[in-house]
Specification:
By secondary structure, the chain is an alpha/beta fold. It has eleven helices and 17 strands. The chain has two domains: 9-25 and 291-402, D-serine dehydratase-like domain (Lyase, Ornithine Decarboxylase, Chain A, domain 1, Beta Barrel), CATH 2.40.37.20; 43-278, Alanine racemase (TIM Barrel). α6 packs parallel to α7 (174-187) and α7 (174-187) packs across α9 (213-243). The longest helix has 31 residues, at 213-243.
């Protein structure tokens, strides 16, 4: 069998989609499945289960495939909105933590309804206003709504004067966590059953860039210090919450890039993986873990404006986050293609410079890209083509293809 990772990778995928309409997106299931197996192996020695971050997949069939192929080590979903959680529950999935808080009435109504129907559903909170709104809803419905306390895992080397990590929860220390836990207990109608903390500065920071040895060493040193600090602090918070009488069934941590370090944390009961399965552009260069790029999109060449230049139709699928060149789609096949700095990836057309020795491209030929992020790719396409054994075996709808835009 030809290897789609070798020098002939472009020709393999090109032949596979000959005559198909572009743009299109596809997932190589062989690589996707190997990523599932790899993620599972990261926790063989830890005994931790793995919660799947659905925002990084956004395709019902592929979400279910992770659990089917991965086995019992995969338990539960980290959803990104309450509406998405309801959709997943209605489609047979359960044990869901909604990782981003919301107290708008429509979301609270869904939370109450699904809890009343027996769903194992939990919503993240991080402030007293969250608690008050959900407590009122729980008491009105004569229910106890399950909550997850979100702890800020950022690294504050200089106290409040520095913040290395994402800005999510305001709860950073033991005292703040205890205050909110006590408030939840006193208010009633709610129950804190879980704790989570996302160490973004570990899980999403590449530290194995090609030809950047000194930079990689500095980043790894920073990560080591941050892991020590957050492991100690998270352990203290969990211990104090349990001493306060909280029965925590879940302590969730990490992300795809920190599966190894988070799995070693004794206070954590489970780790999270999401981007690992598609392995998009921004999840290429980690020292501790390696994932195979599995999700791609293809554009057609529609112009050849000059020698060594092609222009593709569409392509402006820019990833969220800080604005820089890494958020542009990554042109991966043929290898070595580059953007023009004055144009980048455009909404209706994307010009690219061809490298020396590039295969000759004609009008109608595909160029293959990876999105910078993982699940955001699916917001651009109604379906994903599925590839296995170098053959196109069918399609599956994305959330968008099923008529849903949850955020």
């Amino acid at each position: 069998m030809k290897n789609p990772d070798g020098d002939n990778a472009y020709e393999i995928y090109k032949d596979l989609f000959k005559g198909h309409r572009f743009p299109l997106a596809f997932v190589d299931l062989d690589k996707f499945d190997r990523n599932i197996a790899y993620v599972a192996r990261t926790q063989v020695d830890t005994g931790k289960t793995i919660r799947v971050a659905s925002k990084s997949i956004r395709c019902l069939e592929l979400l279910k495939r992770v659990f089917k192929k991965g086995g019992d080590v995969f338990q539960g979903i980290l959803a990104f909105t309450m509406e998405e959680a309801a959709f997943l529950i209605d489609n047979g999935l359960d044990d869901i933590i909604v990782a981003y808080p919301s107290i708008q009435q429509s979301d609270v109504d869904i939370f109450v309804e699904k809890t009343r129907c027996g769903a194992n559903l939990c919503l993240v909170v991080d402030c007293l206003d969250h608690l008050r709104a959900l407590s009122a809803a729980g008491k009105k419905a004569n229910l106890r709504l399950n909550l997850c306390l979100d702890i800020d895992m950022s690294y504050r080397l200089l106290g409040r004067f520095s913040h290395l990590g994402v800005r999510r929860s305001p709860i950073h220390c033991v005292t703040q966590a205890l205050e909110l836990a006590r408030a939840a207990r006193d208010l009633g109608g709610v129950h804190i059953k879980a704790v989570m903390g996302y160490e973004a500065q570990i899980a999403s920071m590449n530290d194995n860039y090609p030809a950047k040895g000194f930079k990689n060493k500095l980043i790894r040193l920073f990560k080591q210090q941050s892991v020590k600090e957050l492991t100690r602090r998270r352990g203290m918070i969990v211990d104090k919450l349990k001493a306060e009488g909280l029965c925590l069934t879940v302590v969730n941590g990490g992300g795809s890039g920190s599966l190894v370090s988070t799995g070693r944390d004794d206070s954590v009961t489970e780790v999270t993986a999401g981007s690992a399965f598609f392995a998009p552009g921004l999840f290429r260069y980690f020292h501790e873990v390696y994932f195979e790029p599995a999700a791609f999109f293809a554009l057609q060449v529609t112009r050849i404006p000059a020698k060594g230049v092609v222009t593709c139709q569409g392509g402006g699928y820019v990833g969220s986050g800080e604005v820089n060149a890494n958020r542009l789609p990554w042109p991966v096949l043929p290898r070595g293609m580059q953007y023009f700095s004055m144009e980048g990836a455009g909404e209706v057309q994307t010009p690219l410079k061809l490298p020396t020795g590039c295969p000759q491209l004609a009008l109608g030929d595909p160029v293959f890209f990876q999105h910078a992020k993982a699940g955001e790719l699916c917001e651009r396409f109604n379906q994903l083509d599925l590839v296995r054994g170098n053959k196109r075996i069918g399609t599956t709808p994305t959330y968008r293809g099923q008529g849903h835009a949850f955020l």
